[in-house]
Amino acid sequence: MAAIFNQSELPAILAANGVELQKLLTRERVPGTNLLLDRLKLLPGASVDIIIQPDSLAWFQMLSGAAEIRHVHGNEKLSDAHVALLPPGFRATLATQTGATLLYAEVPNATRFDSRLATNPPDFRVVDWTREPVLQSEHDARKRIYLVTPRLFGTKAIKGEMIIYPAGTTGANHHHEGAEHFMYFLRGRGTVYANEKPFPVHEGDVVYYPDRERHYLSASEGEEMAFAEFFAPGECATIWVDESKVCGWLPTGRDIHGAAPAREITAHSSKDVAIPLDV
Description:
Layout: E1 3-6, E2 13-16, E3 19-25, E4 36-42, E5 47-51, E6 57-65, E7 67-71, E8 74-78, E9 82-86, E10 91-95, E11 100-107, H1 116-119, E12 125-128, E13 135-137, E14 143-148, H2 150-153, E15 159-165, E16 174-177, E17 180-187, E18 189-194, E19 197-202, E20 205-209, E21 215-219, E22 225-232, E23 237-240, E24 248-251, E25 268-269
Antiparallel strand pairs: 1-20, 2-3, 3-4, 4-11, 5-10, 6-9, 6-11, 7-8, 7-10, 9-12, 13-14, 13-24, 14-15, 15-22, 16-23, 17-20, 17-22, 18-19, 18-21, 24-25
């Protein structure tokens, strides 16, 4: 059954000096989940150590502010345009001078989804999603930007994307087989449907769907809606209630700012798998 809640409903605990932690997805809240999700708020001048277990995989998406991640191979400056993959065994310190907020997610025992992680783990990597190519739905004006993919991050254990719904847009009813996933609503308002039951959503909401639960979304009139969603594992089938509404995604040749993107992605359909392995 879907779990739907807003981050404001959950208490923040002090995880480190100047670091507030909200546990969004836990096994207590969603029994049996393979996805753990936190929201971290670093106050100005704060820092937090990051330690990934040898069999786990993690990533984070910056939501606001600026930070720097310091690790054995160097330092990376981060803004709200960045998503970072944290491979098994990775250690670093995340620090900020001005304050930062981020989503932090982890897949414990990720090697069950990608056996290569045990012998050939991917490297730590930061991606600027605002430079990634924008794809557009063949049916309407919805847009997709990939955040975590096999080509970007070198693993099929997870996948992530950002979906933008123009005001009044509705997607098609479907379910996934072979993966669970969550959505985090970045802005706007709308309605999510879980097995055809409607639930209102807005900024800061988390929606968790287990494997095989039917779902679709609608954006409210007069307001664009955007959310990030992540799957574990990243490779799964998508089954559509109405096959005539299977969504194809077409390249626009532009990034979100309208400039030439950092790379190209060809057109593809969501008919057979939730994410093609070549993106």
